[in-house]
């Protein structure tokens, strides 16, 4: 499945949970995750969306590490079947 299709499914599933998943754009700081997932109750997570079987680039992995060191949850999504689990984990943390 293409990255765009997976990303659209993530946005829809997040909306169905009462949240939003805006595109995350960070001028001057390349490699940041594609989406920031905001769920009711103040739950937040960052999601890097990839086409099925593709991996993040080294710069993206470095940014994920930075966010994790700051205490944020970061996920790599490359299969639509992961969406429910990722959203449940964000919702419960």
Secondary structure layout plus pairing:
Blueprint: H1 3-16, E1 35-39, E2 43-49, H2 58-69, E3 74-77, H3 83-92
Parallel strand pairs: 2-3
Antiparallel strand pairs: 1-2
Largest sheet: spatial strand order: 1-2-3
Query: Count the helices. How many?
Result: 3
Instruction: Give the assembly state of these chains.
Output: single chain
Largest sheet: 3 strands, mixed
Low-confidence stretches: none
Radius of gyration: 12 Å
Order of helices and strands: HEEHEH
How many angstroms separate the termini? Answer: 28 Å
What's the helical proportion of residues?
A: 25-40%
- Average pLDDT works out at 96
**Shape, per Cα inertia axes:** globular
- Fraction in beta strands: 15-25%
* Class based on secondary structure composition and strand pairing: alpha+beta
Number of strands: 3
How is this structure best described in words?
A hairpin with a 3-residue loop joins strand 1 and strand 2 (43-49). A 3-stranded mixed beta sheet has the order 1-2-3, sandwiched between helices. With 93 residues, the protein is α+β, with helices and mostly antiparallel strands. The protein contains 3 helices and 3 strands. The radius of gyration is 12 Å and the shape is globular.
